[in-house]
What does this fold into?
Amino acid sequence: MTQTAEYVLGTGRDESVRLGLQHRLWSWAAHRLWERAGVRPGLSVLDAGCGPGHAAMDLAQIVGPSGRVIGLDESASFLKELGDEAKARRLTNVHRVLGDVQSLEDALPDERGTIDLAYMRWVLCFVPRPEDVIRGLAALVRPGGRVAIQDYFNYEFSIKLAPRRPAFERVVEAVAASWRRRGGDPDIVGRLPGMLLDHGFEVRSLEVVQRVARSPAAFAESGGADSMWHWPDTFFRTFTPKLVAQGELSQQECDEALAVWGEASADPASFVLMPSVFEVVAVRR
Ligand SMILES: C[S@@+](CC[C@H](N)C(=O)[O-])C[C@H]1O[C@@H](n2cnc3c(N)ncnc32)[C@H](O)[C@@H]1O
It folds into this structure.
């Protein structure tokens, strides 16, 4: 397998570690969504844009040996991680495919109408042609089969650091600009129900998860912790310097923002309103 392209957040070790943490913190929401979508043993599942495959491996355990999971991604290095980890866990029902989610029919020519459940989490917001993704899903998912999608709407306006700090808001603005400049859309879920309806799906549920994360300093006396804080913490610490390299932020803005983030982490009164994560389940007619 050869590397084809790299998505905006990168595919290096830092991003892989961040995706692992992100999955742990959000796996409860994923499981609840999969239940809503009817996941069970024996199903054929596609995880499109699976990354290193944390969700794909959970799904492989749920569908069991009588089912199978296809993990598709454009990153050969993420797929290698998935292969190594699936082997270590003796999961024999995980299949890996290197491909573009915007050309699913080309990537999976033998899977027309075979997929019972297609899952996508935090992928559609990065692709320039989301409608082609939905068209491909419509071809692969069997009639009566489902898609379950978790992604963003209102991204840059839903994230807020409290008390408000302009240097942080500048970074959030730059994150959204960087995705848009590469053809992504941090508002993608706003267009999703329409695209699903246009391509033969019925939208069964549309919900939102809104979380708050409190700073570690808030727990200095009680000895507790809010593990959700590590999600924005790893994201902003790893991605803010990349925004300088991408020309979205100056080095000074980056330094100010990381200093402000450090202050917030040490402030027992600080919390972050996390980006709203929307969840869609749709059925193929
Ligand atoms: C934020 S990560 C999410 C990974 C995984 N879905 C999860 O929730 O842990 C986005 C993933 O989408 C993949 N990706 C982005 N654009 C893609 C495309 N056009 N085709 C296939 N994969 C793509 C990236 O390589 C990356 O693995």
Observations:
- Residues 13-284 form a domain with the Rossmann fold fold (CATH 3.40.50.150).
- Confidence is low (pLDDT under 50) at residues 1-5.
